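Bench log. Compound arrived from synthesis this morning; before running ITC I wanted a structural hypothesis for how iron/sulfur cluster sits in the protein. Inputs:
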Amino acid sequence: MKEYLKIDCGVFAAANLRGQPVFPLLYWGLRAQNHRGHQSHGFVTFDGKFYSYKSLDLVPRIKTRATHEWLKRLPGSIGIANVRYTTSGKTDEKALMKGTQPVIAKKNGRKIAISFNGNVVNTLQLKREIQKEFPRFEYECDADLISHKLLVENLKTGSLTEAVKRCMKEIDGAFSVAGITQKGEFFAFKDPYGIRPLCAGKDQKTKILAFSSETVGFDINALKFQFEIEPGELVKVTKRSLEREKLVNMGKKAFCAFEFAYFARPDSKLGKKYVYEIREQFGRNLAEENPEIVQDADLIISIPETGDDSALGVHEATGLKWERASRRHRYVTERAFILLSKERQSTIDKKINFIASKIRGKRVIITEDSIVRGDTTKVVVEKLRKMGAKKVHLFVTFPRIIGPCFYGINMATYGELIGANYDEEEIAKIIGADSVNYQSLKGFIKATGYHRNELCLGCLTRKYPTPMAQRIADEMWKRFQEGEKETGRLYEIPELLENAAIK
Ligand code: SF4
């Protein structure tokens, strides 16, 4: 089986309607969202022609004297940009470079450039359709699939709106996309369930319109948030404004619940609230749901940084002493969760440090955003024990993960998920903690400010919003229970894809 790169990313895109260079906005929009992908970054700008720059690693620092060079390399008043991490497949430099975004699809003088966040499920089916028009078409990442599908439909129908509508109807998966056509049409759209974030912002005075995965992309550029793009909605940038059109209506949303606990920056807004406030409430909920654990603790600490705000919430709700006894090394930037398994342990060791004198002899509660495989949490618990913690209780803000994700988060099989295989008590034993306490699903949903039917809870409930993902999940679960050994990303096995294909 060929392993394709699967991704979750950060998107930023902007147009300066006064014709000023857009690159500085793209640059800062990406810098603000580097937490969404550290393995590569890229920019495409447009001034009647496309200009592209892509590279590996974090978005670089640009020295003032080099700004001129960058503006020369990426001219134009419209642009799209992307940061990305791979969630499977090869991670050598060549493979990573091939999957870097934005991508540009070309045929018969038509071109479409896109920056995308999400994951396509019905890859095989789409590839075959695209190959009818592009017989030698192969792809390195899902952005290739989406850009070519858009181009194929655009060539057939002659209409961008119609092409986007067909993508929305025929692609199973999560896709939040910003793009530019060779005519200079600048647009953004979301899949019919709105699984990944993408919002619109602007500055009336400077005539700048922008799209960003998270609102922090607007804040850093002094732009004003306008609206979260609706599921199934296409937004086009006209000479003066943003034109919205709902193309597909599934009657429900399915925004990724994991964004609240793990992905989004605390100073981003999701819905009406800052992520910080939501995480703080997660902590209050955990305290209220587990009074006997709070009674059995001397202090609360956190696994930085996604656990910090919930630790504050526990402290606020109970008065339990909150110690900032865990610290991140500021310049170790890898997120442990998105590293390969063999790298994970040593990186946790390198990036988090504890203040031993605050922990020695104490009964400690530590807040964690989630437990996926359990290996990173285990290392943290071991560290606390070595420092002389008398007890270690875990408070986990994201409820127990019992299913894989098909929409861009790196958890692809049942076997790898500790929560799909063991209950709380067993997990506590495996990671060496005195107890593991997950936030209730009800409390979690309430804290987000969303309704249950507005969220994707697939990995928590095994009920997925898109039909093909559901069929594959059910088949994978059946095979897993029958003891079939999972090898890598089961849902990319052609036979599974064939059986579950959209009919
Ligand atoms: S399955 Fe889980 S991680 Fe994946 S999109 Fe849904 S809520 Fe998010």
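What the model suggests: The two ends are 24 Å apart (CA to CA). Residues 195, 256-258, 405, 407, 409, 456-459 surround iron/sulfur cluster (CB under 6 Å).
ITC booked for Thursday regardless.
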